[in-house]
Specification:
Layout lengths: L1 H17 L5 H7 L2 E3 L4 E5 L4 E3 L2 E3 L7 E5 L6 E4 L10 E3 L10 E3 L8 E10 L5 E6 L3 E6 L6 E3 L10 E11 L5 E6 L2 E3 L5 E4 L5 E10 L7 E6 L11 E7 L3 E2 L3 E11 L4 E7 L2 E3 L2 E2 L4 E2 L5 E10 L8 E8 L2 E9 L2 E2 L7 E7 L2 E7 L21 E2 L4 E2 L13 H39 L1
Parallel strand pairs: 2-11, 20-29
Antiparallel strand pairs: 1-4, 3-8, 5-6, 5-9, 7-8, 9-10, 9-11, 12-13, 13-17, 14-15, 14-18, 16-17, 19-21, 21-26, 22-23, 22-27, 24-26, 25-26, 27-28, 30-31, 32-33
Pfam families: C1-set (PF07654), V-set (PF07686)
Keywords: Disulfide bond, Glycoprotein, Immunoglobulin domain, Membrane, Signal, Transmembrane, Transmembrane helix
């Protein structure tokens, strides 16, 4: 009896350790909640997926992790103990004790599935055990078809001959896809498309149309319709900008042609100045922006010389969705100079005249080109530039106004001289007449 009495306290102690009575840990877990509010999420391949998970309350020690799938085939997507910097999964709020939202970059069709946010606690054996999990988020990933490729017969065909044309595309999800064939813009019949599963949960498609050729046949096209694609095709919206505008004379002005929201990506841009082609450059390849649509910027630089003031700079756009279209802007020069001298220097009948270096108005003083500045005999007094041979002047260059003034002054002077001559003759006659009378 003494032996049994001695062993009872030891046995009770072991039972207390193994069978922990409800206490602090049990009460701490009762008010713990885990919310995973997104039942379903749909994204496009290449985008970033955001999965939300918020916790509140207190639970025992242990991590919060993300799993893809449930049961024996599940896969750990996020583990706080995994510090791999190359992982494409990251916490939205690093270090938070309540926000366990994650971002998954560059999602692909193979990332489709149901994701669970799970709270673990350490068990008696030291291993992590599931304490609470979210309701799960079902993720679907849409992948756009590759640009359709239409191939015709391998050999030259003759009129009235029936030949196959095939349209192929691939890498899309979901499986459903529609194909429409057109001959010279008119709808035509075709065989049902053949859709086959490819790698990474994506699909390929092939469609064949049998065409009886006729004289004048020139164009055939296959149009695709898919959930991840815009309705094929989409014409661009175009805007032409000039920077700066207006521009100072002899400065460079940049014209930008901005093409927005078009599909497919293939597009041609060319530049014209007053109808004549000039060389421009695309700043980048067509950039995919959203909903499968593309954007492109093309640019050309123009030297703003005076004679180009008011010139029309045109961006010509060629795209499958529309006929070739032009969009224009005008080159404006701020405060262009009023004239200048020309490349020609002409003297006419003894009167000096400036032509061709421009029309200088308002009494301005200008300089001729370098080739007219060689030190030769003769000069223009008051203008300060040498004269080309063989002319020589000693007076400033007259204009139409000065010619008229000189003529008037000459007539006035001649009138004065004539008046004084007549008066002198009259006085001389009277003097002679009075002298004869006196004698």
């Amino acid at each position: 009896m003494v032996l049994v009495a001695q062993e009872l306290p030891l046995m009770c102690l072991m039972l207390l350790l193994l069978c922990r009575e409800p206490g602090v840990d049990a009460q701490a877990g009762q008010d713990f909640t885990l919310q995973q509010p997104q039942p379903k999420v749909a994204v496009t391949a290449g985008e970033t997926l955001t999965l939300n998970c918020i916790t509140s309350g207190v639970a025992g020690p242990g991590p919060v992790m993300w799993l893809k799938g449930w049961g024996s085939g599940n896969k750990t997507v996020y583990d706080p103990n995994n510090k791999d910097p190359s992982s494409h999964v990251m916490r939205a709020v690093p270090g938070s004790d309540t926000n366990f939202t994650i971002h998954i970059r560059n999602v692909q069709p193979e990332d489709m599935g149901t994701y669970y946010c799970v709270k673990f606690v350490r068990g008696i054996t030291g291993a992590d055990e599931v304490f609470k999990r979210g309701d799960g988020t079902e993720v679907s990933v849409q992948a756009k078809p590759s640009p359709p490729l239409v191939s015709g017969p391998q050999q030259r065909a003759r009129p009235e001959e029936s030949v196959p044309f095939t349209c192929t595309t691939g890498g899309f999800f979901p499986e459903k896809i529609e194909v429409k064939w057109f001959k010279n813009k008119n709808p035509m019949g075709a065989q049902p498309p053949q859709v086959t599963e490819w790698r990474m949960k994506t699909y390929n498609m092939s469609s064949t149309a049998q065409v009886t050729l006729q004289k004048g046949d020139a164009l055939r096209a296959a149009h695709l319709k898919h959930r991840a694609l815009p309705l094929f095709p989409v014409p661009p919206s175009v805007e032409v900008r000039a920077e700066p505008s207006p521009v100072e004379v002899n400065k460079t002005v940049a014209f930008t042609c901005l093409l927005k929201e078009f599909y497919p990506a293939k597009v041609s841009v060319s530049w014209l100045e007053n109808g004549a082609e000039i060389k421009g450059q695309n700043l980048s390849r067509p950039l995919e922006v959203s909903r499968g649509l593309f954007e492109l910027r093309s640019r050309v630089e123009v030297q703003a010389t005076e004679e180009k003031n008011g010139s029309t700079i045109t961006c010509m756009v060629v795209h499958d969705a529309q006929a070739p279209a032009t969009y224009s802007a005008v080159l404006w020069i701020s405060n262009p100079t009023q004239g200048g001298l020309s490349n020609e220097f002409q003297m006419n009948k003894g009167a000096s005249e400036l032509r061709g270096w421009g029309a200088c108005q308002g009494g301005c003083v200008v300089s001729p080109p370098e080739e007219a500045r060689s030190p030769r005999k003769g000069s223009l007094r008051g203008v300060g530039m040498p004269l080309p041979e063989p002319w020589s002047l000693t007076s400033s260059v007259p204009t139409a106004g000065t010619n008229l003034l000189s003529s008037l002054l000459l007539l006035l002077w001649m009138g004065i001289l004539l008046e004084k001559g007549l008066l002198g003759a009259l006085l001389f006659f009277l003097f002679k007449h009075m002298k004869r009378k006196a004698s």
